[in-house]
Amino acid sequence: MKNHRFIISSQLFVYMLLLASVLTAACSGSDGEAEEENFSSTPGGVFILNEGNFNSGNATLSYYDPETKKVENGVFQRANGRKLGDTGQSIMIWDGVAYIAVENSGIVWGIDVETFKVKGQVVASSETKIINPRYVQIVSSTKAYVTDLYSPYVNVFNPKTFQWTGAIPTGQEMNKGYCSTEEMVQVGKYVYTNCWSYSKKLLVLDTERDEMVREIELGSWQPKSMKADRNGKLWVITDGGYTMESESFGDDVPHLYRIDASTGAVELDQALDTDEANVQIEMNSTGDVVYLINNDIYRMSVTDTHVPVRPFIKAPVDSNGKRHKLYGIGVNPRNGEIYVADAVDYAQAGVVYRYGEDGVLIDQFRVGINPNHFAFK
Amino acid sequence: MRLSSFILCCFLFPMLMMAQEHRETVHLEDVQVVAHRRLKDVGVEMTKLDTVVLRDNISLSMADILSKNSTVFVKSYGRATESLVEFRGTSPSHTQVTWNGMRINSPMLGTLDFSTIPAYFIDEANLYHGASSINLLGGGLGGAVEMTNKPVEKRGWGAQFVQGIGSFDTYDDFLRLTYGNDRLSSSTRLVYSTADNDYRYTNYDKKTDVYDADGNWLRSYHPEERNKSGYFDDFHVLQELYYDAGKGNQLGLSLWYTHSKRGLPFLSVDYKDDSDFKNEQQLNTLRGVLSWEQRKEQTKLSMKGGYSYSDVGYEYYTTRQEVSTSITNSQSYSNTAFLQANLDWMLTPQLMLMGGADFYYTHVNSHDRSPFHIGKNFDKGRPEYHVNVQARWRPVPIFSLAGVVRQEVYRDDFVAPIPALFADLILYQPWNLVLKASIARNYRYPSMDDLYFQPGGNPDLSPERGFTYDAGLEMGVKKKWWTLRANATLFDSHISDWILWTPNTKGFWEPSNVKKVHNYGLEAMLDGSVLLAKDWKLSLLANFAWTPSKNVGEDINDNDASYGKQLCYVPKVSANVNARLQWRSWTLAYQWNHYSERYTTTSNEVNYITGRLRPYYMTDLSLEKTFRLRAIDCAVKGVVNNLYSTEYVTVLSRPMPRRNYEIYLTIKL
After folding, report:
1. Residue of chain B whose Cα is closest to the Cα of A84
2. Does residue A4 fall inside a structural domain?
3. ipTM of model
4. B437-470 burial, b for 16+ CB within 10 Å, e for fewer?
5. Tens of pLDDT along B233-263?
6. Staple partner for A143: which of A25, A139, B171, B373, CB 3.0–4.6 Å?
7. Among A127, A128, A287, A147, which Cα is nearest to A205's?
8. Which residue from A minimizes the CA distance to B578?
9. CATH numeric code, B2-19+32-668
10. Which pTM was predicted?
11. Residue A172: how many CB atoms within 10 A of its CB?
């Protein structure tokens, strides 16, 4: 009798297992098919590129409407049913298309700025010389340049058709790790690019011949960000590199430079505060005011000879006296409003602060992980 | 291999063996019951994995075994890729691991990749949860895994060969040769595993757009892709020698060499062509432990000496024409010497004293030859001295107490003493129902990467500090027809000065003592077996863990929304069930495991798709038939992994394989 009870209970157990199997079979650990949303964005909106975490594939794109103060996060994924990729590096807008370089995915997306739908992409395929794309510069309606962290080339593609058309050798020594190229600005027929990784150089590219024609060497290491003003001057900020026990790649001191683009002459060289915060530079739409992050936000005229002692906007300080580390800056060319990003702990939704041209806080909102670049419609 | 043909192979082929069948009687294995609870185990919260579990699927790594048979969380980056073990929502570096008494965590990272440990090489594994790890060693703020080898009991020569063939061009070969006599015992084990591992998956992270001849968009779909650069080629050899010198003296030698070459799989959001890139890790490891043990009536004295060598190379480069470059080419060499002495002294049947001392000297040389990470990471040596004293006392038959104190010194840096207190109270003897409790303070000293890695290493780091309380019930009953063991433990743990690496603006990462974490929860286990009828036996092992693990550290600033949130990638709930039905020489095994939702951000964002990983349920099924051909014991086993072809990820952008198959033929002399 006892044995019989065991058999019955065991059979019951087996049935329960089978039932559990069937029930759990329907449960999936994948996100599966995602619905594509239809967007129709308002004019004058702001794209915020959220870098995400390296090797996680969680870069995202946010869209903010300054009129309604409404933010939509993850719009690339929501509009296209696919992920943006791994390590979103930069975003810029030209002729109704936002070009987004997603570095570690090896892709440059082009999306419609109204619908956020993909219009095309340039991929780091075998036919190209793209490895990790960083920034896009539109040279003409048929020519765009793409810089790269690892490739010793600036790649060229057609921004309308997204066809790769060629590559410009930068002539940098690959065995020294000096071949990275970063931001680009165009002055006349020349495009200037700064070499950030283990370098002190700016490179000058002739857009007519698609050739690297000149190098400008700075005194400080790792030029991180660069803009051009209305007078044809280059404004460059370095992070100063770093020193290790065995070797030195800089002295940790960021520098701000103003350089005459045509001659390469350094007109201004100022050492900045050393801290953990990011350094980045922005220019207003008329090219006469420079904004830079160096812990706080500073504003100066392009004719000034030094960075002001007092910041234009102090980085927010909370009630416990903790200062926010600023990660990215953008200036709206329509109205001069300033957008500043706080990456918080680099592993959660970052916060964007929107300031008026006068430096008064207008709004703040949550975006994705590590917001680093802004693009204005 | 198609499903239908595989089913034929795996499940019908063994039936053909019926003609060869020899009847086997199913027995219940010995069950550990607490009636004879050892003083050594007073208050200890331990999961024991015996050979039945470790050999159930011979090709599994210890990472697979632990994820399917215990409450720990295994953070796996894919099949045969890095798999890290986390106890109770702590970090992988809070799991200390020993092999034959020697700690084998990477001295650089403080972690151990369990995917490089074949379960075939381990004869017994014990998991010490929380405070219980202090019985073994310090620094296990989450717990410790003790892996050991045992001398073969069989006299004379023995041999076992297993050939496994599986999906994705997977080939597994296992060979064991043994010899034993009254004094000497030898075992040689070899494992060779290789696979293309290029499994196909639907890539929900990408879409392919379809256009008409005029370039108008027609539709898009998620492409079927294969796992790029997921190949592996692993070879292991383990030689053991044991000599019984008489009068309670035993000598032992274990030598383990591993060579592993593994591709590091591309992310599902990577658009580069894998034929243009090589992303590979090569590992050579040699571990050796020489031991002497002397057992007397009241004492056990043991001395061990060990050595561990490891070189790990990681290379990422492109072979593409004109842009060929090495992006990462790092190489690290670590050498560790180890000495240990332990004395167990049973003063009376009610009182036991234990003491021990460990010495480690580790030297690490780490550098990178690629142009993008120029220079030497570090070249440092570090001595460590650990001593411990332990007392275990049973003043009355139903109550026992134990106290442990450890002291660790790293170079000339004295870490604060590590104390732990354990207690047992037998509540109901017929069920062997025992109430257990423990309290401990623990410290984990920073790893060598944390301190010295250039650039970024922080020599000013403090040890991580843990404070843990445990209380639980355990029972065990063994009857003629059935056995049952169960336990349930509540725990509460606080870790402060948690070391976290964060990126800086120069392009590298830096560690600091920033986090404070509160872990608490419940771990439960049920293990039973029943003889259903003559020749029929059903066994069941189920584990369940509920492990909230929350950040309670100071905010970075007032935008920090991570306070009180679950740590990234730590599931709140994990569970598994293993059922085995045996009939004569047939065994049907069913494995089911589940991890709940995991967050990928510290603020537990749920409003975008990359913010969390969905829960998943995994089911594996196997059927084994043993038979005898003349004097040779044979077995054929078919395994279906991921029976329902669940599409899932355990880490963002790392798709795991869908349903896949393996078949094994075992020959044993």
Report:
1. B269
2. no
3. 0.90
4. bbbbbbbbbbbbbbbbbbbbbbeebebbbbebbb
5. 999 999 999 999 999 999 999 999 999 999 9
6. A139
7. A147
8. A17
9. 2.40.170.20
10. 0.89
11. 19
